[in-house]
Amino acid sequence: MSRIQKRIKEKGYLLADGATGTNLFDMGLESGYPPELWNLEYPNRVNLNHENFIHAGSDILLTNSFGANKFRLALHNAENKVEEINIEAASIAKKAADKSKREIFIAGSIGPTGEIIEPLGTLPKEEAKNAFLEQALALKKGGVDFIWIETMSSEDEMEAALLAAQKTELPLVCSYSFDTHGKSMMGLEPSKLADLTASFYPSVIGYGANCGIGASELIGSLICFKSYKLNQELLLVAKANCGIPVFKGDRITYNGTPEMMAQYACYARDMGAKIIGGCCGTKQAHIKAMAESLERYKPSSEDINLDKIIGDLGSMTDGNVNMINSYINPGSVKIKRVRQRKRRR
Question: How far apart are CA 175 and CA 243, in angstroms?
Fold first, then answer.
C-alpha cells in the first residue's frame, strides 16, 4: 500500500487543489500563453498558487505541468525543455509542500498531447507513449509522489500514458473528461475507463472524472462509476469545474460559488470519491469552503436524488441523465427519478 493510500485510509478522503490556469491568469498569465513556461519564468508565482491552496486546505497539489509534453511545447518552440520544465514544476510544488506542517502529496500532472492517435489521427501510439514517458520520468526526478493523468478522452491515448507512467514505478491516478452525453469527446463512457484501469491495477490506485461541463454533470459521471465499480481497492476521483463557463467581456469565468462547490464536494463523498478537488475556475475560496464542508460531513446512505443534485449544483443534460439510468443496476444504486422540466437539452 502506497503512502497516499494509507493516508486516505486514515482520513477517509483527501482534498486536491483547484485550477492552475484560472489562478495564474489572475497573476498576469496572458490568454494563449502556456502556463508551464512560468515554471522557468515566474516560479515564485507558481509557488504562491500552490501555497494558497495549501492554506485553503488542499492535501494534494497538482504540478504546473499539464501541457508539458513535447507536442504541446513545440507550439511555443520549447519542445527541447520538456525535462527542465517538468523537473521545475515538481520542485516548485514540493518546495511549497515542505513549508507546510501538514502532510502534502505532490501529483505529477500529465495532460493530453493535443494530437489524435492513429488510425483516426496521424500520431503513432508509440510516439505518444515516448512523449509521456519523457514527461513522467522528469516529474519523478523532480520529486512527485504519484502521477496524475488527466482530461483524457481517448482510450488509446490514456493507455499510452499509463504504459509510459507505469515505468516510473510510482502510483498512478487517471481521469477522463466527460461531456454533456456522459461520454468523453471520443465517445467513451465511464465503464471504459473503469475497465482500462482495472487492467493496470495495482499500478493504478485511482480513477475518475475531471473538467467536463460542470459540477452537476461530473456528479452524474460519479454515479455511473459508483454503480459500475468492480475493484473496491481502486479509489474514485472527482475534480469538477467550478460551475459553468460564461463570458465576461473577453474573459471566461465560472459561475460556481464557494457554497455550491462545498455541496458538490459532499455529493462526491456520497458517491464514494476518496480524492476530491476542483478543476477550471476553482479558486482558493472554493477549496476553503470544500475543506470546511468535508471536515464536518458524513457521507449519506440515502437514495440518490437527481432533483436535489440539479437544484444544488445546476442543470444536467438529458444525455447525462440517460447515461446514469443505463448504469443503474438492481440492488446497486437506488436513484429517484428526475423531473424532465428541470433538465436542459
Answer: 19
Output the nine-digit C-alpha cell for 76: 511555443
The beta-strand segments (E) located in 31-153 are 60-62, 105-110, 146-152
Residues in the chain: 345
Strand 273-278 relative to strand 304-305, pairing: unpaired
Residue 158 makes CB contacts below 8 A (sequence gap 6+) with 149, 152, 174, 176, 193, 196
* Cβ proximity of 200 and 228 under 8 Å: no
Q: In the structure grid, which three cell numbers stand for residue 289, read together? A: 469552503
**Among 109, 142, 139, 145, CA closest to 6:** 145
Beta-carbon contacts of 119 under 8 Å, excluding residues fewer than 6 positions away, are none
Burial of 208 (0-12, 13-18, 19+ CB in 10 A): buried
Q: How confident is the model at residue 343 (pLDDT cuts 50, 70, 90)?
A: very low
> Which residue is it, cell 437544484?
311
d(CA 237, CA 274): 6
pLDDT level of residue 231 (50, 70, 90 thresholds): confident
The model's pLDDT over 245-258, given as tens digits with 9 standing for 90+, comes to 887 777 778 989 99
- Contact status, residue 63 vs residue 109, Cβ threshold 8 Å: yes
- Rounded Cα gap, residues 170 and 205, in angstroms: 10
The grid coordinates listed for 292 are: 470546511
Instruction: Give the Å distances, CA to CA, from 69 to 37, 160, 184, 330.
Output: 12, 13, 21, 44
Q: What is the pLDDT of residues 117-161, one digit of tens each?
A: 999 999 999 999 999 999 999 999 999 999 999 999 999 999 999
Q: Which grid coordinates belong to 70?
A: 513535447
Within 8 A by CB and 6+ apart from 55, the residues are 284
245-248 and 251-254 beta bridge pairing: antiparallel
pTM comes to: 0.94
Distance CA 71, CA 101 (A): 38
Helix (H, G, I), strand (E, B) or coil at 26: helix
Which residues are 292's β-sheet partners? none
Give the other-Cβ count within 10 Å of 309's Cβ.
24
